[in-house]
Design a protein that fits this description.
- α4 runs parallel beside α5.
- The protein has 12 helices and 10 strands.
- The longest helix is centred in the middle third of the chain and has 20 residues.
- α4 links the parallel β5 and β6.
- The N terminus is likely disordered.
- The chain is of the alpha/beta class.
- The strands form 2 sheets. It has an 8-stranded parallel beta sheet with strand order 3-4-5-6-7-8-9-10, sandwiched between helices. It has a two-stranded antiparallel ribbon with strand order 1-2.
Length: 383
């Protein structure tokens, strides 16, 4: 049973630059298959590190001693509390307890085989970005990436991975991107959406420069450092509020990336918002364009409609799908003016749906192919 209620994608096939009935320019690409051999590309799944001891072989003796002295036996964050129902689907939780998605056998049995997935991108939420110590964050990010390469990528040819970086030090993060750039199994770079600064700030630009240089999208994934409130109205009381507020943070970061001129400076850069929802994009683009007409003196480097920049540079993973019904999602696709921004994802092992019903019934075959194959293939040149 598909639990995201009433979401039928049935956007009209429009020619490039055709206007819809709202008078909005639709920057569409023809609905024709790519030459990709893949059937399904999962753009967001989350294998876990069992514990920090697993990373010890990938750190030198000094840092192993630091981890022992600090008694850092595990490194979980509260982005997904272990006992929260949404953190792992019941049938994906190990019998007897423990973390879900910690073994390659479990990933094959629960995700790759039953869903018929040809390529799955591992997006780690290991909390290196939360550390106050820049050097330790950088060391742990490097150890984690080496662990992922050996434990996951070497063992399963269907897996790809994101480069985990410690954003406390953007120059060190850029060096980590450079270090792994030659391994084409790493297909993007992951950053959490809630940082200490808006992501458009020049503080982060060394990361974007390195990513663009190597054709790596930036994945802005739901998640927080938990040093500041997730909402512009202040701190929340419940995890429910934190989880629901991730989409607000995504909107703020998208505005920052566009307004600060990141895509002007790095015109080949793509940004993928993961686990952000999708329904908010339509309204944001409307406000973006409206206010740009009156306030573009503020950002003179933005020479075109902000929504045009979004269509060209921004992509979004599908789960958790948050449109309330089929007609709303169809209308949203038309209003945004593109079918290219949706990327298939399962969000494994997080609990977003039952069984293997990741997509609502009744989708046009050509749109399903775009979401599962064409759009990921165009977004991730390395797959």
């Amino acid at each position: 049973m598909f639990v995201n209620r009433g979401m039928c994608l049935n956007a009209r096939a429009l020619k490039p630059c055709q206007k819809n009935e709202l008078g909005i320019l639709m920057l569409m690409t023809p609905n024709r298959p790519t030459n990709s051999k893949f059937r399904v590309v999962d753009c967001d799944m989350h294998p876990e590190v069992p514990d920090t001891e697993s990373l010890a072989p990938f750190m030198d003796g000094h840092w192993q001693d630091i981890m022992l002295q600090r008694d850092m036996v595990d490194f979980r964050t509260y982005n997904y509390p272990p006992k929260a129902p949404i953190s792992a689907r019941p049938d994906w939780r190990p019998v007897g307890g423990g973390k879900a998605a910690v073994s390659i056998d479990a990933v094959r049995r629960e995700l790759l085989d039953p869903f018929g997935i040809d390529i799955a991108i591992c997006n780690s939420l290991f909390g290196v970005q939360m550390l106050q110590t820049e050097d330790l964050g950088t060391v742990l990010a490097r150890a984690h990436n080496n662990y992922v390469a050996k434990t996951w990528l070497d063992e399963e040819e269907r897996l790809r991975a994101s480069i985990l970086i410690a954003t406390q030090n953007p120059h060190a993060a850029a060096e980590e991107i450079e270090r792994l750039a030659s391994d084409r199994r790493f297909v993007q770079v992951t950053m959490l959406v809630s940082q200490e600064l808006p992501l458009g700030k020049k503080h982060f630009w060394p990361i974007y420069a390195a990513a663009e240089r190597h054709g790596l999208p930036i994945c802005v994934h739901a998640g927080s450092l938990f040093r500041y409130p997730l909402t512009p109205a202040g701190s929340t009381s419940f995890y429910f509020e934190d989880y629901a507020s991730q989409s607000y943070a995504c909107q703020a970061q998208l505005v920052s990336l566009v307004a600060e001129g990141v895509f002007v400076k790095y015109p080949a850069l793509r940004v993928v918002f993961a686990e952000s929802g999708v329904s908010w994009l339509s309204g944001l683009c409307t406000r973006f364009d409206k206010f740009w007409h009156g306030l573009r003196l503020d950002i003179p480097w933005i020479k075109v409609l902000p929504s045009d920049i979004v269509r060209q540079h921004v992509r979004m993973t599908l789960q958790p799908l948050d449109c309330p019904d089929a007609s709303t999602l169809e209308r949203m696709l038309e209003h945004v003016g593109s079918e290219d921004f949706l990327l298939f994802s399962t969000d494994y092992p997080h609990w977003q749906f039952e069984g293997t019903d990741t997509l609502p019934p009744g989708l046009p075959a050509e749109l399903i192919h775009k979401i599962k194959v064409d759009n990921p293939a165009k977004t991730y040149e390395r797959i």
